């Protein structure tokens, strides 16, 4: 990698010596160091998209622009707010803090679930790679994403865009902007977006209940010039989102079952899975969000003062089918018995209903018997019967934050500086509940008593309170006309407290596997579960040395540290897993499994250290931009989401990978072949290795989860006048993502719950029955997007396509080792449509 980088530098210098100065047609101004600078001068690996790029690429949601950036990818599955972004091998973690700073118009957004939103009226997007904690603070261990919306205009203007497409797509949004008086300018944006989805519930025949989406968003921005020196930037917005939830299928990874039952489906390749969505519980995700912020900029003599206050409120719940049928939890309930009479895939010759359309072929791998044959079938999760129960979740957060910083004027000074303080108060409610589906509907609340229509049998319900205070600063010193030294430092401190909200009551008794307290933590705390508190703090330094090799070629070297706070799993997590999976010598099911898990009810802070060398160049008279970087990153206590399935239902927990080593290379380019034809692309290479992992020691030597070794993009845009009044614009984007493992275990065999069931007799033969995830990696895939638009002075007519080759690939694989299988989510199929925009 280093040799390649040197070769690029040598070539760049040779070409630059023959080139004359040329101003770029569109010069992107970066705000990555909290002051305006040319993108090519910033000593950070930054990928940026202008407003024109956003328009011609048809970018509407975060996944659209993330797919254009090498060494950055996204998973978008369980619900609208559940996105996992991977930057250089460091991935966001479900149920924990984000791994990147998300900043909109200079305001840091504190709720990770608020990232996956409609992108409306965007002027610029920047993706910063590598730890950015020194300036952006907590959780920026992998990077930062900066979104800048369009400023209110002086003159009145507006825009209306309507669109329609396949999968029931309907879109309409409008913008109005202009001066309200001599000192105020406003901008209002409203949007409605709906989609039926690409998949059908074969039980009901409905095509708008699986991956559907309905999003209504309104945002406003007001710029008030209070005086010649003071400007207020006031932002407010609200959105209501409804969509599908938990659209997964399950597959097994049990080689012993293949031999015992002579059925290859018990260890099939996840990429060959044929999806069947046949749930009877409506998959629902509803999300209501409100945001408000005020940013004050005060221009004083020699320096500027910026103050930010922000408030956000997000209320969200999920309802979907459960998983308990695999372990016969609700086998004997009246509703399960009734459902199995007609909803089974037993062949008609054996007295069954032969519903292979709902479950697949008999015992391939699922086999559902009619009533009378009990505790014998393999039902699977998310089925049309009530035998699997239901699950209900809440992810709600309210937060108030503020920042005060002082920034020196540039004025061509040799020393430039920034200093500031930041605070945040965050309250987050997390609910995970499982219970019985009695065919009587569902109360959408954390706890439902035994007398209710859907009684709760297992409940995790906690309120997390976080107080953050930090101070930061940066000095940029021009050592010479060509060399700059930048030193930044930040100190963050977080006080975190969690309170249990679960009532001390017994489960309903309907689930034969969860008899006792509704939360296992009450076994050790009969008088009530106490609050838990911890403090996490860390210094985050960054040192950068940049050197101008020539007028158009810049190089840099940097050392940086990022910090992500530790936290708490829901109380009862460790007790549940110990009972079912870890040996205690007291006759629990865990004695037969003996998984030796080290999952606790809390987890440590994560610290990322990065060393990087980069090069940025403008070549061939400025017509070519070529940027590259090599980096080496060490992550201590990398927070990793683990998914557990068993007789208790489902359980989500955050664990840590003790040490993770990542190194990589990136190269991106833009070349203006002619005044109307532009080619662009990039490549990202990652080499990652788990160095230590006490929770999963067999995973040492494996790749970082969710981190493909190779990603690359290639595209072109062509803008050509077809007459004096019309332009034809074409853009095509190709993206490639290499093979991806989603777990630390990547072929190593570990115990499963079936070792316990093998001791009970019945349909499961004696063990061992270890899992093997050799077949659980997602295959490499590519997507191809295109957009063609006819543009006039006041209107644009465009046709577009996403994934136009209809590539069928997995969006996510969630391995559950102790279950002995994985949960799969498919990606969107081909999407195409037409849009009309009118400007006034």
Automatic annotation (TrEMBL):
Chain segments annotated as transmembrane: none
**Which terms under GO biological process does the entry name?**
iron ion transport
Q: Which residues form the TonB-dependent receptor-like beta-barrel domain?
A: 287-804
Query: Which domain of life does this protein belong to?
Result: Bacteria
* Annotated Pfam families: Plug, TonB_dep_Rec_b-barrel
Q: Does the keyword Transcription apply?
A: no
Q: Give its localization.
A: Cell outer membrane
Query: Domain named TonB-dependent receptor plug: which ranges?
Result: 39-144
How is the protein disposed in the membrane? Multi-pass membrane protein
* Keyword terms of this UniProt record: Cell outer membrane, Ion transport, Iron, Iron transport, Membrane, Receptor, TonB box, Transmembrane, Transmembrane beta strand, Transport
Which terms in the GO cellular component ontology are assigned?
Answer: cell outer membrane
Supply the InterPro entries for this chain: Beta-barrel_TonB, Beta-barrel_TonB_sf, Plug_dom, TonB-dep_rcpt-like
* Family in the record: Belongs to the TonB-dependent receptor family.
Protein name, as recorded: TonB-dependent receptor domain protein
Organism, as annotated: Brumicola pallidula DSM 14239 = ACAM 615
């Amino acid at each position: 990698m280093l040799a390649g980088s040197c070769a690029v530098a040598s070539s760049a210098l040779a070409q630059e010596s023959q080139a004359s100065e040329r101003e770029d047609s569109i010069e992107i101004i970066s705000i990555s160091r909290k002051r305006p600078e040319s993108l090519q001068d910033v000593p950070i690996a930054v990928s940026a998209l202008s407003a024109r790029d956003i328009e011609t690429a048809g970018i509407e949601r975060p996944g659209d622009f993330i797919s254009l950036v090498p060494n950055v990818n996204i998973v978008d599955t369980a619900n609208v707010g559940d996105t996992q972004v991977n930057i250089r091998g460091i991935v966001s973690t479900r149920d924990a803090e984000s791994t990147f700073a998300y900043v909109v118009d200079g305001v840091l957004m504190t709720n990770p679930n608020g990232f996956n939103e409609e992108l409306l009226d965007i002027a610029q997007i920047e993706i910063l790679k590598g730890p950015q904690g020194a300036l952006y603070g907590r959780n920026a261990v992998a990077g930062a994403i900066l979104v800048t919306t369009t400023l209110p205009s002086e003159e009145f203007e507006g825009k209306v865009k309507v669109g329609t497409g396949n999968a029931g797509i309907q879109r309409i949004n409008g913008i109005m902007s202009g001066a309200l008086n001599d000192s105020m300018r406003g901008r209002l944006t409203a949007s409605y977006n709906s989609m039926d989805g690409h998949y059908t519930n074969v039980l009901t025949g409905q095509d708008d209940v699986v991956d559907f989406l309905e999003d209504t968003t309104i945002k406003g921005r007001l710029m008030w010039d209070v005086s010649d020196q003071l400007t207020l930037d006031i932002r407010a917005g609200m959105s209501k989102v409804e969509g599908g939830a938990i659209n997964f299928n399950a597959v097994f990874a049990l080689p012993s079952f293949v031999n015992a039952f002579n059925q290859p489906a018990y260890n099939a390749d996840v990429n060959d899975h044929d999806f069947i969505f046949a749930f009877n519980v409506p998959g629902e995700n509803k999300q209501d969000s409100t945001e408000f912020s005020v940013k004050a900029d005060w221009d004083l003599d020699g320096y500027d003062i910026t103050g930010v206050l922000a408030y956000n409120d997000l209320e969200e719940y999920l309802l979907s089918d459960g998983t308990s049928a695999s372990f016969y939890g609700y086998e004997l309930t009246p509703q399960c018995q009734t459902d199995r009479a007609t909803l089974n895939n037993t062949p008609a010759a054996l007295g069954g209903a032969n519903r292979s359309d709902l479950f697949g072929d008999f015992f391939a791998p699922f086999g559902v018997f009619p009533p009378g044959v009990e505790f014998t079938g393999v039902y699977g999760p998310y089925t049309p019967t009530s035998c699997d129960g239901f699950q209900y979740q809440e992810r709600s957060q309210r937060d108030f934050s503020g920042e005060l910083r002082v920034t020196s004027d540039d004025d061509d000074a040799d020393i430039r500086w920034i200093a500031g303080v930041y605070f945040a108060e965050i309250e987050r409610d997390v609910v995970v509940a499982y219970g019985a589906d009695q065919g009587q509907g569902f109360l959408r609340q954390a706890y439902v008593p035994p007398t209710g229509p859907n009684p709760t049998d297992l409940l995790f319900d906690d309120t997390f309170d976080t107080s953050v205070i930090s101070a930061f600063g940066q000095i940029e010193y021009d050592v010479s006309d060509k060399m700059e030294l930048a030193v930044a430092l930040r100190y963050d401190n977080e006080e975190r407290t969690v309170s249990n909200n679960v009532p001390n009551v017994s489960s309903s008794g309907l689930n034969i596997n969860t008899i006792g307290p509704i939360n296992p933590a009450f076994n050790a705390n009969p008088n009530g579960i106490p609050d838990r508190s911890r403090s996490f703090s860390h210094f985050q330094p960054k040192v950068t040395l940049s050197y101008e090799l020539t007028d158009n070629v810049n190089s840099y070297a940097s050392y940086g540290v990022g910090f992500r706070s530790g936290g708490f799993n829901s109380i009862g997590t460790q007790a549940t897993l110990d009972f079912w999976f870890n040996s205690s010598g007291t006759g629990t099911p865990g004695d037969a499994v003996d998984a030796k898990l080290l999952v606790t009810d809390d987890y440590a802070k994560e610290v990322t250290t990065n060393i990087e060398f980069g090069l940025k160049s403008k070549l061939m008279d400025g017509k070519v931009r070529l940027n590259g970087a090599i980096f080496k990153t060490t992550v201590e206590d990398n927070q990793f989401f683990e998914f557990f399935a068993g007789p208790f239902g489902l359980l989500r927990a955050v664990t840590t990978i003790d040490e993770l080593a990542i190194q990589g290379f990136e190269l991106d380019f833009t070349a203006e072949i002619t005044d109307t034809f532009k080619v662009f692309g990039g490549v990202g290479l990652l080499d990652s290795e788990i160095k230590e992992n006490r929770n999963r020691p067999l995973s040492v030597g494996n790749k970082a989860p969710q981190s493909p070794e190779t990603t690359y993009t290639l595209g072109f845009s062509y803008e050509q006048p077809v007459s004096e009044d019309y332009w034809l614009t074409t853009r095509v984007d190709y993206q490639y993502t290499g093979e991806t493992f989603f777990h630390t275990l990547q072929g190593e065999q570990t115990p499963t719950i079936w070792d316990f069931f093998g001791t009970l007799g019945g349909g499961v033969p004696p063990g061992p029955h270890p899992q093997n995830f050799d077949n659980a990696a997602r295959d490499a895939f590519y997507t191809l997007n295109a957009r063609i638009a006819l543009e006039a002075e006041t209107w644009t007519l465009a046709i577009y396509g996403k994934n136009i080759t209809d590539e069928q690939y997995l969006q996510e694989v969630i391995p559950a080792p102790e279950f002995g299988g994985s949960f799969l989510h498919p990606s969107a199929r081909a999407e195409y449509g037409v849009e009309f925009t009118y400007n006034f």
